[in-house]
């Protein structure tokens, strides 16, 4: 009774109070709002009418109470305001709703807002507010909505927010908040929406959240939450949205989630969840979206649309799921629109039951182990826009019914084992924009009907067996951006109408048998950026109008028969790669190429180019690969090239270049391959080359280089191949070469080197392909250390003045297959293991004996002149005759090889700089092994040598 | 909700975007690279977007652009080898000596029909010598010394009639040393420092698995 009596009194007193302060209240608000205004920057003038002459209740954004005595609402959302939130807001004591969202406000949320005891809704989201969420906000006892997300707020969630027991909406998403989710969240019994998405929250999801029984939306996606999903979440019966994607949650999916009978959206993607998908999820009859992708889930798919009648999206991609697709994954009359099951270990044939799923719009079964034929009933999926079946083992033909799938926009069937032709019915697909059939076994011609698919933007038929010509109607595809027909058996010319596909950006026709010349209509392809035509039989000069194509960035026309000038390809100044290797281009190298400042790869090798290297190339400071080999270039290696210090491959071999080997090459710290061989360079091997510490291949052979081999060569510790043969080098072999520990090929033959073979060569234990010191003037004994070259397969020391005995240690060279010690001054017994080598390996020495030569006991007893002059003459005649025949045969074979090589026209310079030894390569690495039975090669296998020894 | 969907659809579009390069040998080498740790960046030039791997450093091709040499000896690399290496059908020289490569030698190396030389010495390979090596009919040089290989020497290797050099010294092999075929001529040094390796076996008397 007392209570009832007191209540009217309190009411009376409060009404009295309000009446007393009524007038003063709005005027106080007025001056307070002026101070607030003074701290805001208002470029759009929304606060223009905030002036004392105007009734406060008509000020923009303000809402007054019904009696016009209090300011109860302030809404300046999306007003373009910047500046700070003034602490003065605290004087608007009657304020119930404050909305400053979607502005450019900076600074902190002032703690003084905690004084707004009547505040029910606070919206500060989408600003640039910083600092922490102050504990004082926990004083706002009446607060129902707090949305401060999408700012730059830092620090932890203050546990004081747990005092806001009336809170319905708490939005803290898209900020920089960290720490764990406070357990006090469980005090918010009225909470309906909790959005913590995209912060840096860590730790566990507190089980206390299960006390928020009103919760309808819980999103904490994009944080660093860990541990298991609390099973108690299953108590949140009102929950409609549960979004925990992209955290580091682990353990299995709690079966209790099956109790969330109102759940519409469940997203757990991008966690570390393992175990099976709980069958209890099938109880979620309201579920519309289920995304469990990118976890470690295993077992079979047991999600049954027959029970999840409302399911629209099913995303289980990127897990370890096994087995097939359950027959009742989708039933008729379902709502299922999206099924994404890619990147699992699923297998089986295409599930025919799925064909009843007429609601299906997108189906992705890619990157699994599905096999068998595609069902002809595919066209039952009449609403399907995207069919993604790539990276499986589907086989058989493409069903012609595919032409009835009139909604189809994307058809992704690449990397399967499909055979047969593309059905002509495909031409009915008017909405088709992407057709990826690459890496299958499809054959036949590309149907002309395909060009009826007028929406097509991307076609990729790479890596099939298509024959015939490119459809002459291809020009109808006005939207075509990407066309790849690479690696098929297409023949005939490029249809001129291709030039009418004016949107084309990437064109890849490489690795076919296409022929003819480029049509002049190419000039219309002004968007063209990438064009690769390599390995075809295109010919003739390039249309001059190609110069108009200003967007070209990657051009590869290598291995064709194009002729004439390169100039039409120099119109673009955005070139990155230009590869014209192995054509018949002639004329000079256009200086305009230097306009493409980003050019990294320029390969013009194996053409008939003349003139000099343009000095403007000094501007190509990004150049990584410069190959001008096998042309008729003249002049010197110009000083300007020294600016191109990013070069890793510099191939100028087989030209007619003159001058000296530039010493500035030593500044190219990344240089890995330098080939200046077969030119007319003179002067010395510059000592500065020793600074190219990454050099792997150095080939300067067949020039007129003279002087000594610089000892600095020993600084090239990465060097694999050193070839200085066929020059005029003099002096000794520098002993520093022993530091080139990775050498597997060393050729110094056909020079005028003198002195002894340094015994240090024995330290080059990785020498393998050859050690060739032949045809020099080396003297002294063969160092026994060469017996340590255990991997050496070929040793040529012939035509020197080496003397003394063959060191017995050489007999341990078990890898040796070719040996030539002939034409020296050697004497004594050859190691017994050499008996398998032919006589020619040893002839022309002073006095060698032992197998295959005469046995040493015989040679001791016999005199020098044990053959009559006539016999000697006969032998000489025989030798001259047979060697002439051999020479003729060799020349014939070399010519054959030369022509074959021009014909086959494969990228010789791609063979990593070994092309200069082409014949030898074939001889040594090559297919025709029988040739090794010729001179200097060991005939007998070791196994057959061994018994002789015993 | 909608943005998530858009993102996942974009991601799926990315995964199906067209491949510009599918040269199998380049892919095999690139797969090798992903298994290796390369602190000194010797594999830096291995750009998988190039038409073929023939301009990659440490890779040598023949005139048909097939990889015939892989030279990564003494390159400070570690990691493991994978089955992809079996895809280098034309490889003649596999030089991976003196590194820190560990794990088993993949049996797929037995697919390298053209292999002349396999130099895996000076690594940390463990497990057994693959029996599949018996298929390497062109093999002349097989150097597996200085590793941690266990098990016995596969008897199948006696059929490698071209084998000139076979070195398994300094491993942990067991059983007996075969004497058939090319094994009749390999010096005893090729088998040194394998504590549990006996032999050479007496033809017909010692069983192949003896002591293993």
Explain the overall architecture:
The complex is a heterodimer of chains A (950) and B (212). With 950 residues, chain A is mostly beta strands. Chain A has a domain of 285 residues: Ribonuclease Inhibitor (Leucine-rich repeat, LRR (right-handed beta-alpha superhelix), Alpha-Beta Horseshoe). In chain A, 10% of the residues lie in helices and 21% in strands. Chain A is built from five helices and 61 strands. In chain A, the strands form seven sheets. Chain A has a 33-stranded mixed beta sheet, with no helix packed on it. In chain A, strand 2 and strand 3 form a beta hairpin. Chain A is elongated and about 130 Å long. The N terminus and C terminus of chain A are likely disordered. Chain B is an alpha/beta fold. Chain B has one domain: Ribonuclease Inhibitor (Leucine-rich repeat, LRR (right-handed beta-alpha superhelix), Alpha-Beta Horseshoe), CATH 3.80.10. Helix content of chain B is 12%, strand content 20%. In chain B, the strands form three sheets. Chain B has a six-stranded mixed beta sheet with strand order 2-3-5-7-9-11, with no helix packed on it. In chain B, strands 1-4-6-8-10 form a five-stranded mixed beta sheet. The radius of gyration of chain B is 20 Å and the shape is globular. The N terminus of chain B is likely disordered. The chains are: A mainly beta (950), B alpha/beta (212). Chains A and B meet through helix 4 and helix 5 of A and helix 1 and strand 2 of B.
């Amino acid at each position: 009774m007392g209570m009832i009596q007191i209540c009217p009194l309190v009411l009376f007193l409060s009404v009295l109070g309000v009446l007393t302060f009524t007038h003063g209240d709005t005027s106080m608000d007025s001056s307070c709002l002026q101070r607030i205004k003074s701290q805001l920057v208002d470029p759009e003038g929304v606060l223009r009418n905030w002036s004392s002459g105007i009734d406060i209740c008509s000020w923009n954004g303000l809402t007054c109470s019904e009696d016009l005595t209090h300011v109860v609402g302030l809404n300046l959302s999306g007003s373009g305001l910047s500046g700070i939130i003034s602490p003065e807001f605290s004087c608007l004591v009657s304020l119930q709703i404050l909305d400053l969202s979607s502005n450019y406000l900076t600074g902190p949320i002032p703690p003084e807002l905690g004084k707004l005891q009547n505040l029910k809704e606070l919206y500060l989201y989408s600003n640039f507010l910083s600092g922490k969420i102050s504990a004082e906000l926990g004083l706002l006892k009446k607060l129902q909505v707090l949305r401060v997300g999408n700012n730059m707020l830092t620090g932890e969630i203050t546990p004081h927010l747990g005092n806001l027991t009336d809170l319905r909406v708490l939005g803290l998403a898209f900020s920089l908040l960290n720490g764990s989710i406070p357990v006090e969240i469980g005090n918010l019994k009225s909470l309906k929406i909790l959005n913590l998405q995209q912060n840096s929250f860590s730790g566990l999801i507190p089980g206390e959240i299960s006390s928020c029984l009103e919760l309808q939306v819980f999103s904490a996606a994009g944080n660093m939450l860990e541990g298991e999903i609390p099973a108690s979440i299953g108590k949140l019966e009102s929950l409609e949205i549960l979004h925990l994607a992209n955290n580091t949650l682990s353990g299995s999916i709690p079966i209790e989630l099956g109790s969330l009978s109102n759940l519409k959206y469940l997203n757990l993607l991008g966690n570390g969840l393992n175990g099976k998908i709980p069958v209890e999820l099938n109880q979620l009859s309201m579920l519309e979206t289920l995304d469990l992708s990118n976890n470690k889930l295993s077992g079979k798919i047991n999600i049954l649309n027959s029970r999840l009648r409302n399911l629209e999206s099913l995303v289980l991609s990127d897990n370890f799921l096994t087995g097939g697709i359950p027959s009742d994954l989708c039933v008729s009359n379902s709502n299922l629109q999206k099924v994404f099951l890619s990147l699992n270990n699923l297998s089986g044939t295409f599930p025919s039951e799925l064909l009843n799923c007429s609601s299906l719009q997108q189906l992705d079964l890619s990157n699994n182990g599905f096999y068998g034929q595609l069902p002809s009933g595919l066209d039952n999926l009449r609403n399907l826009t995207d069919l993604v079946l790539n990276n499986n083992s589907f086989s058989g033909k493409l069903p012609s019914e595919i032409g009835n799938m009139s909604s189809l926009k994307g058809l992704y069937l690449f990397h399967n084992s499909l055979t047969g032709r593309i059905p002509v019915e495909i031409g009915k697909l008017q909405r088709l924009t992407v057709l990826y059939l690459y890496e299958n076994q499809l054959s036949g011609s590309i149907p002309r009907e395909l060009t009826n698919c007028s929406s097509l933007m991307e076609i990729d038929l790479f890596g099939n067996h298509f024959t015939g010509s490119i459809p002459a109607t291809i020009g109808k595809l006005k939207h075509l951006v990407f066309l790849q027909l690479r690696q098929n058996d297409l023949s005939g010319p490029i249809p001129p109408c291709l030039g009418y596909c004016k949107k084309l950006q990437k064109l890849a026709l490489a690795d076919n048998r296409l022929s003819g010349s480029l049509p002049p209509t190419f000039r219309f392809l002004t968007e063209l950026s990438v064009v690769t035509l390599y390995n075809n039989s295109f010919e003739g000069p390039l249309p001059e109008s190609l110069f108009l194509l200003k967007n070209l960035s990657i051009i590869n026309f290598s291995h064709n028969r194009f002729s004439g000038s390169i100039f039409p390809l120099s119109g673009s100044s955005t070139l990155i790669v230009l590869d014209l290797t192995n054509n018949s281009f002639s004329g000079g190298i256009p200086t305009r190429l230097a306009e493409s400042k980003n050019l990294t790869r320029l390969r013009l090798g194996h053409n008939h180019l003349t003139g000099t290297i343009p000095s403007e190339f000094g501007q190509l400071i990004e150049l990584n690969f410069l190959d001008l080999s096998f042309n008729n270039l003249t002049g010197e290696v110009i000083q300007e090239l020294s600016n191109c210090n990013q070069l890793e491959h510099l191939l100028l071999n087989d030209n007619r270049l003159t001058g000296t080997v530039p010493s500035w090459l030593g500044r190219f710290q990344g240089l890995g391959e330098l080939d200046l061989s077969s030119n007319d360079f003179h002067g010395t091997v510059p000592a500065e080359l020793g600074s190219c510490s990454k050099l792997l291949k150095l080939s300067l052979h067949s020039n007129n280089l003279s002087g000594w081999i610089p000892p600095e060569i020993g600084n090239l510790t990465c060097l694999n191949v050193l070839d200085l043969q066929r020059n005029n080098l003099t002096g000794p072999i520098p002993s520093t070469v022993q530091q080139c520990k990775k050498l597997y090929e060393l050729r110094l033959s056909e020079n005028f080197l003198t002195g002894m073979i340094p015994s240090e060569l024995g330290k080059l234990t990785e020498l393998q392909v050859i050690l060739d010191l032949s045809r020099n003037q080396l003297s002294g004994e063969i160092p026994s250390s060469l017996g340590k070259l255990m991997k050496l397969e070929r040793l040529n020391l012939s035509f020197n003045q080496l003397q003394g005995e063959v060191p017995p240690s050489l007999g341990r060279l078990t890898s040796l297959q070719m040996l030539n010690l002939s034409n020296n001054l050697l004497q004594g017994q050859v190691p017994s293991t050499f008996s398998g080598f032919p006589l020619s390996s040893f002839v022309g020495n002073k006095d060698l004996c032992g197998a295959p030569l005469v046995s040493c006991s015989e040679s001791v007893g016999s005199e020098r002149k044990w053959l009559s002059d006539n016999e000697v003459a006969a032998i000489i005649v025989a030798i001259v005759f047979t060697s002439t025949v051999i020479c003729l045969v060799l020349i014939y074979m070399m010519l054959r090889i030369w022509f074959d090589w021009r014909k086959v026209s494969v990228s010789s310079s791609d063979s990593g700089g070994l092309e200069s030894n082409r014949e030898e390569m074939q001889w040594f690495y090559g297919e025709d092994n029988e040739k090794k039975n010729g001179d200097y090669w060991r005939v007998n296998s070791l196994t057959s040598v061994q018994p002789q020894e015993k | 909700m909608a943005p998530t969907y858009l993102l996942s659809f974009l991601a799926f579009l990315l995964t199906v975007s067209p491949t510009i390069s599918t040269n199998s040998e380049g892919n095999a080498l690139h797969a090798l690279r992903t298994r290796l740790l390369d602190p000194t960046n010797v594999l830096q030039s291995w750009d998988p977007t190039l038409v073929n791997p023939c301009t990659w450093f440490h890779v040598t091709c023949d005139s048909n652009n097939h990889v015939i040499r892989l030279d990564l000896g003494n390159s400070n690399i570690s990691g493991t080898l994978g089955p992809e290496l079996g895809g280098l059908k034309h490889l003649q020289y596999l030089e991976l000596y003196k590194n820190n490569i560990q794990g088993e030698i993949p049996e797929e190396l037995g697919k390298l029909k053209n292999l002349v030389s396999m130099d895996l010495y000076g690594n940390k390979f463990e497990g057994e010598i693959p029996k599949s090596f018996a298929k390497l009919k062109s093999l002349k040089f097989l150097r597996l010394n200085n590793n941690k290989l266990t098990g016995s020497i596969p008897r199948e290797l006696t059929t490698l009639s071209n084998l000139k050099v076979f070195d398994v010294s300094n491993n942990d092999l067991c059983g007996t040393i075969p004497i058939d075929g090319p094994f009749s001529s390999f010096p005893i040094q090729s088998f040194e420092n394998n504590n549990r390796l006996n032999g050479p076996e007496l033809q017909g008397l010692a069983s192949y698995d003896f002591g293993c």
